[in-house]
Amino acid sequence: MATRSKEEPSLAHLMATRRSIRKYQTRPVPKARLARILKAAYFAPSGADRSGYELVIVSDPELRRQIRARCEIADAEWHRNAAPWLKAWLKKKGITPEKPFLEDAPYLICVFGDNKAPYWLGSTWLAVAYMLLAAEREGLATLTYTPGKSKFLQKLLNVKSNLVPVTILPLGYAAERLPAKRIKPGTRVYLDRVDARRALKLG
Amino acid sequence: MATRSKEEPSLAHLMATRRSIRKYQTRPVPKARLARILKAAYFAPSGADRSGYELVIVSDPELRRQIRARCEIADAEWHRNAAPWLKAWLKKKGITPEKPFLEDAPYLICVFGDNKAPYWLGSTWLAVAYMLLAAEREGLATLTYTPGKSKFLQKLLNVKSNLVPVTILPLGYAAERLPAKRIKPGTRVYLDRVDARRALKLG
């Protein structure tokens, strides 16, 4: 078994305490931490072992400023067109088209899926999940942020046309504290076609 | 911090040792372990907190027999139509349309994405990744298995038409041992548009 310090949190703890963070400190992130998070992605299973994604990390302030500007324009439109229930949810959460985290977080991990790889979209999201948990392990905050439009990232970041922008993960130290996640009893779980939430004590 | 036994493996260890398993023991899996794995899915972030997926666990042998039969027919066709490089990869890995794991593994977690939820496909795969790691934590094996055709699962398992079959996770004790995963240096990682694999020591 790998060496493990006494302070290492359990998987269950990492999953429960990890929250999507929208407020970031501008404090720099050590490159070794970034590297460990990127390495975690490599371990995610992927269709025919092809990985199916490419990662472009942005730290340059001018590039981040441009990304923010384009995302905010796209998100203003996305907010206008959102369904009423979604508008209510966004309001409750205080989410607006303003995206300061795109400039505050020292790194943006721009995740592109390679649409020529088999099962590329699933493979890409599995790698994202591995990075989310690895970031939590490193004491860093993230968010799976999907702008209303994201095609512009291909040109701005000079990636090939088969690489589809999937999500942007800001990476940095959190500037807000959120409580551990509560289990949502809403998700339906069936066992052999019978509702199993009670039988399995899923809350 | 949550209580943690001394034997609890680190996140990095879980990620590196977890392998996609295609051979399973028929030995039963305790329901408490299954429940902990399903609970892990609840903690994954999801678009507008809507979860965006539904889980149907199949243990009934007759249902599993039917699922296997349908999947093998679909996979025979999928194998015939695979690109040459994919055929070579499948041969190297010994993967054929035969899917005994669908009957050997005591549980099949059939994962459906709710295409009415925002960002449902990404949310569903994030939940899958959480379950993969939780299964490894429980000493159990899994595989993200995507049959060549899967629409039949809706009718067979009596789920609504907005629930799209995404993947099947067989869950059980492994009947094969695979070495820890090696890092694939092939995945491209850029930092501010410059190849960063060497700078970040990503192998």
Main attributes of the structure:
alpha+beta; 5 strands; 203 residues; 7 helices; homodimer; globular; 3-stranded antiparallel β-sheet; two-stranded antiparallel ribbon
Give an overview of the whole structure.
In chain A, helix 2 packs antiparallel against helix 6 (120-137). The first copy, chain A, has one domain: NADH Oxidase. A three-stranded antiparallel β-sheet of chain A has the order 1-2-3. Chain A has a two-stranded antiparallel sheet with strand order 4-5. Chain A has seven helices and five strands. In chain A, a hairpin with a 2-residue loop joins strand 4 (189-191) and strand 5 (194-195). With 203 residues, chain A is an alpha+beta fold. The longest helix of chain A is centred in the middle third of the chain and has 21 residues, at 61-81. The first copy, chain A, has helices at residues 11-17, 31-42, 61-81, 84-93, 101-104, 120-137, 152-156; strands at 53-58, 107-114, 163-171, 189-191, 194-195. Chains A and B meet through helix 1, helix 2, strand 1, helix 4 and helix 6 of A and helix 1, helix 2, strand 1, helix 4 and helix 6 of B.
